[in-house]
Amino acid sequence: MAVDFGTFSLERRFAVAPEVLWRLLIESEARAAWGAPSDEDVLIVEESDVRPGGRDRHRCGPQDNPMYIVDTVWFRLSSPEVAAFTESVRVEEEYMTVSLVAYDLVADGDGTRLKVDVAVSSFVGPDGIGDHESGWTSALARLERLLPELLAPAG
Question: How many domains does the chain have?
Answer without folding.
Answer: 1
